[in-house]
Each structure stands twice: as structure tokens, then as C-alpha cells.
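Exam prep: given the inputs below (a chain plus MGD), describe the expected output before reading on.
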Amino acid sequence: MPLDESRSDRSQADRVKVELFHSACPHDCPSTCALEVERLDAKTIGRVRGAADNPYTSGVICAKVARYAERIHHPDRLLTPLRRVGEKGTGKEAFEPLSWDDALDEVAERLLQAEQALGAETVWPYFYAGTMGLVQRDGIERLRHVKRYSRQHSTFCITLSDAGWNAGAGVKRGVDALEMADSDLIVVWGTNPVNTQVNVMTHIARARKERGAKLVVVDPYRNATAKQADMHLMVNPGTDGALACAVMHVLFKEGYADRAYMAKYTDVPDELERHLESRTPAWAAAITGLDIEEIVAFAHLYGQTKRSFLRLGYGFSRSRNGAVQMHAASCLPAVTGAWQHLGGGALYANSALYGIDSTLIMGLDRLDKNVRVLDQSRIGAILTGDPDDLGDGPPVTALFIQNTNPMNVAPDLMKVREGFARDDLFTCVHEQFLTETAQMADIVLPATTFLEHDDMYTAGGHTFFQVTKQVIEPVGAARPNHWVHCELAKRLGAEHPGFEMSAWELIDTTLKASGYPDAETIWQGHWEDRSLPFDDAHFLTGFGHDDGKFHFKPDWSALGPLHHALPEMPDHYDIIDQTTPEHPYRLVTAPSRNYLNSSFAETKTSIDKEGRPEAQIHPDACAELGLAAEELVRIGNHQASVVVHVRPFAGVQVNTVIIEGIWPNKAFIEGIGINALISADRGQPNGGAVFHDTAVWMKAA
Ligand SMILES: Nc1nc2c(c(=O)[nH]1)N[C@H]1C(S)=C(S)[C@@H](COP(=O)(O)OP(=O)(O)OC[C@H]3O[C@@H](n4cnc5c(=O)[nH]c(N)nc54)[C@H](O)[C@@H]3O)O[C@H]1N2
Ligand SMILES: Nc1nc2c(c(=O)[nH]1)N[C@H]1C(S)=C(S)[C@@H](COP(=O)(O)OP(=O)(O)OC[C@H]3O[C@@H](n4cnc5c(=O)[nH]c(N)nc54)[C@H](O)[C@@H]3O)O[C@H]1N2
Ligand code: SF4
Ligand SMILES: [Mo]
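Solution:
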């Protein structure tokens, strides 16, 4: 992989006077790259590059953001507010432009009418992380809390992985990713950084070049990262708990367990050892589909390497048992004591480093815990009136949506479509593009991108906090989320100091309340490094729990209401969507490289690079099903079926099928996207979508 995907010709830029601005990538990606943006004039950007002087970004960004001019200046950007005058779901021709004042008046009137008819809980502000900027992403919470609209349990992404990590380590942080360069073994587990956070590969490449470090990838298919690995453990999806247990079994049996470390830093090492006696490599081989020898070889490599770095991803947590999988894997460095060494330990995410006080931005001073909470991933069930989801409250009759595209990304898509299609539902979508969700809206509002507004950013994958300023004028009549919150608040009679401030004032005030330098100072310096001293980052001063220990035996009841059946110890928790004679395959819907969730599916370069949705199916399975390359396969379960092209691929087990990318529904042969197959079941113990946990049938289409 090229070290700098963003390097390219400067010919266009050379012709005009180019100014460089610092910024940060706002997309929902652990890398939160520090950027250098070329401004060609007050309205136009040129190339975007990774900041060379940021130690994590190190001059490298993904190709899709390097080409951001293509997205920001895209002819399909929304330029004015729109009112729908035609059928839902039918594109541009169904909308007519209107002024901002008229649009905001209409939205406010409809929200007030809904509230008067059924109470404030009938309104559901709905958002996710289209921008990760704290002001523009989270300000919608202030409007929600002040108005006592229904709350949102945000379960698309991190709920399962958070629960799994916190179960063991007790706090959401880990070893600084820069230490990967000092590691002798890097285990990329349940993440595909070549696609999803390219910067991880920069630091792995350094360790390999400078120290001859080994790279192990644990993943159900030979993805772009596994292709570069020294060892690829191609597990059955949802079976990592078994692999982790068998590895620990070997570590204990063969003298790789650090008993002195465990006595000091962990809760119940002896009980764990006894528990693992029956979790042999042979036991795990039958569950994971790996060979016994592979499992033992990995255990030896891991046990023998003091500087071993686990880079734990989100992917392997997107399953009904995902929290148990994450916890089981996170136990490994606590058994060997790898945490004690430079370049040793684990990183899932670093959110806890930042300590931002979000009270002002989110209006937490106005939060009323009696207001009902609706699960984001169950939007289909909610909009179609499932009483279990709605609780005692009214139906949802009004949605205000920012930063997300649920008509494309949410589970149980057929139900989501049915819900959005309701005649008695008022929907306002604030968007950069006329997404499939925006096409269902009554009023569409045009949104700015990150280079058209101010914001600030934490990061999951590194330690740098960043503050950014607007670089160009808003495109067309696009307006930032914060501006829309304030304008709606006026019309809705919602009062809060946060609605009286500019975005910059919100940033500055929040930073002061959080013990940071002021906004201007951080902006001038581009970022504020929040990394911890070695002993703290490596938990040598204690893990996050009250007893300071890593918990092999977690208190799941503290982590969510659905804790009753969870295993007490790391294990294979067998609640995944099992294969049956009727559904003999397991489907994984992993992200593609050139799309980011559903974003960038509008840019031509990304579309050209991705081509079309394809099912990657083992050649033996193809033979059995009578499928060949270029042919169509129908893939289905009790929810729906979709039709895609076949790509025979030996880098996957015979009973697993992979479809990369969250494509627009229309990219599929019958216009039904992949999430029609995804269940809206809640992962345990705290909910969480199970995007990679689906048993399916396949047949020639
Ligand atoms: N290009 C690109 N970048 C992205 C995104 C994107 O869509 N495209 N999405 C962004 C977002 S929102 C997020 S949260 C991150 C997610 O980034 P990651 O942490 O990488 O998580 P996923 O992309 O869901 O899955 C990564 C890998 O997990 C594997 N996997 C699935 N099930 C299992 C399992 O049971 N066990 C194991 N061991 N592996 C499994 C998949 O095969 C896939 O290769 O990426 C972000 N970055
Ligand atoms: N099958 C399958 N489904 C998945 C996943 C998977 O791996 N497989 N991954 C899941 C995961 S991890 C996640 S996080 C979700 C993500 O799904 P979404 O939250 O829907 O993320 P995006 O698809 O990137 O859509 C974000 C939208 O926000 C808009 N946007 C960006 N910035 C702004 C802004 O400043 N203001 C406004 N108003 N709008 C803005 C963008 O134009 C874009 O349309 O998808 C989930 N769905
Ligand atoms: S790698 Fe992630 S954070 Fe970096 S530019 Fe690409 S999408 Fe943005
Ligand atoms: Mo995500």
C-alpha cells in the first residue's frame, strides 16, 4: 500500500495562489486525521493532505478524503431548502426550493403541532456521526433535552465494543497507537485498517521495517489487511471468544502466563485458569473452523513476544455475542502481562483521554431521565409502531434528522422503509446530499461540510484533540447544524445559553470548562496532545475499575440491562444467528475502502473504484450452488432477499459470504440493499446492532 495516498500532481494548485489551512477529518473513522487543506479562493478548495507534522497522521490520509474537492464541490450538493411536493423516495424532481425562513417556520410549526397533539415524546430527533465534530454532531441533544423530545440510545456502532472493553479494562482507553512502532507483534483483530483506518498501517509498516515485527490478522476473510499479514486466522464469524480462550489455555499450560503480574493486576487468575482447562485448541478448532496447529502457533507467537500489541476493532463486536468476544480478546495481555512493556498491551479506543465536559453543548443540565429512550437501531420497529419499543409513550409522528442516513445504514431495512413511508409521519432531514433518507423527507435542509463551519474533535485511534475553523464560504445556502439548532430553538420556544452562542463561543466555553487551553490557542497549535505517561497508559497505576484490576470475571450487570445470560468468564457465547440446514451460510457486511458507511457513494471516483456490490463466495460453495463469476446470486433469510453478482474467492471459509460496502439500495439488482437482511435484534448486554451476524441461504438468481 502506498505510504501517501494523497500525494498527487499539484498542477491545478500551482496555477493559482494557494493558501494552506489546518483542519481535521470529521468523518466517522478512528483516525480523525490532521489535515492540510488547500484553499484556492474563498469558495473553493484544492487538494487535501495529511498533516506531515502530526505524529499519528504522519502525512497519510485515505484517498477519498484526499479528493474531498470532489465531494464538497459536487454538483449534487444540496444548495437550498426543499419542500417535497411529489411522492416520497422519488428524487430531485419531487422537491421544490423554498427560503430558509419558510422552511424553518414550517418545520417548527409541524413539530409544535405534533407535540400539541401527542406530547413532546412524539418528536424524535435522530442523529449519528456523519460529522464527529462535538458542536455540530451533539448540539441536537440540547434541542432534544430542552424540548423533552424522545431520547436516543445510539447503538449503530460502539455499544457492543464499549461494553466488551469496559468489562475488562474498566475505562475506554489503551496504549498509544504510536507505540505500535515499538512492537514486535501486532495483532489486528476484527478490524480492517487498510479500508477503515489507514493510519494504523503506517505505524505497523514502521514496526515491520525497523524491527521485523510480525503482523497477525484475525478476520473471517482475507481482507486487504489480511493480505499483508504474516499469519491470518480466518475464523468463523462470531467465534473469537473460542479462539481467545484456547490461546489463553495454551498460555497457561505452557508457561507463558505471568502469574506475578496477574496476582497484582487482575481479579481472578486462578479461577480463569480452571475455567480454561476445557477450552482446548481442539475445542476451539471445531467452533472457529481453524486448525488446531494454527491456534497453537498463534498462542506460541503471542506468548513468546513481550512487545505484543493488540489492535482491537469494532468489526468483531457487531454480533449478538460481540461484547463477550471483545472482552475475551482483551484478556490476552492481562494473562501474559504484555501491558508492562513498551509496544505491548492493547488499544480499542481512546475516548476516555479527552474528558470534555459536554454539558453546555448537549444541554445535559436540562436532561430529564424520565423522558423515554428509543433505540436508534430499532428505527424500523419504532416507526412501524412496535409497542415493546415505544413503551408507554406515543407513536413517533415527527423526525428531525442530522448526520445519518438510516434508510440505507440501519438494520431491518424493509421495516425502516415501511416506517418512513407512513403518511402521518413528518420528517425533516438536514443533509449535504439528497440521500435515500432525505428523499423520504417533507422538508430537506442543506448542510455545510466540515470546511464550511467551526468545530472540535476528539479521536478514537490516537491522542490528539483538534480545533478547526471554517475554511471556505458555505456552498449555496448550506448552513451548519448549530445554526439550524439555534434557529429552530427560537421558533420552538426552546431557551438555553447554548442557543445564544456562536459555534466558536461554544467551543471556547466548553474547553475552559474542561480544563483545556482556549480555542484560539489550540487552533494556532493545531492540536493538543492528551497522551498519558507510560505507567498510566499501560495501566501500571491500575485499571479503570474501583479495585484497580483487570476483570477476567466482569460485572456485566453494571454494563447494561440485558446481562442475565452472559457467561461469567471469557467464552464462546453461543447466541449468534447459527447456520441451519435452511440457512447454511453466515453473512458479513464489512466496510469497503472507497465508501465511508453510506458517504462517498455519491462521488464518481469512489463509485468507479468500487464498481458494484459483489458476494465473495468460496469456490467450493460456488460449485455446490452452481454459481460462477459474473453470475447473480440471491441471498436471503426470513426478513428479505437481495440479488448481487458473484465473486468466487478462496480467502473465506466455505460457509461464510462477504459483501463489502453499504451501497445505496439502487446499486442492488432489485433495489433492495444489504441491510434488509440484517436483524434489528439487540446485542447483549446494552443493545448494539449486529451487522455481521446473519445466517442466510443462497441460490442462483
Ligand atoms: N473506508 C471506510 N472506512 C471506514 C468505514 C467505512 O465504511 N469505510 N466506516 C467507519 C466506521 S463508522 C467504523 S465504526 C469503523 C469500523 O472499522 P472496523 O473496526 O474495521 O470494523 P468493521 O469495519 O465493522 O469490520 C472490520 C472487519 O471485521 C471483520 N469481522 C466481522 N465479523 C467478525 C468476527 O466475528 N470476528 C472477527 N475476528 N472479525 C470479524 C470483518 O470481516 C472486517 O474485515 O471504520 C470507519 N472507517
Ligand atoms: N451492513 C452494514 N451496515 C452498517 C455498518 C456495517 O458495517 N455494515 N456499519 C454501521 C456503522 S459502524 C455505522 S457508524 C453506521 C453509520 O451510518 P451513518 O451514521 O448513516 O453514516 P454515513 O453513512 O456516513 O452518513 C452520514 C450522513 O451525514 C451527513 N453529514 C455529514 N456531515 C454532516 C453535517 O455536518 N451536518 C449534517 N446535517 N449532515 C452531515 C452525510 O452527508 C451523510 O449522508 O452504519 C452502520 N451500518
Ligand atoms: S483515514 Fe479516516 S480520518 Fe483519515 S482522512 Fe480518511 S476517513 Fe478521514
Ligand atoms: Mo461506526
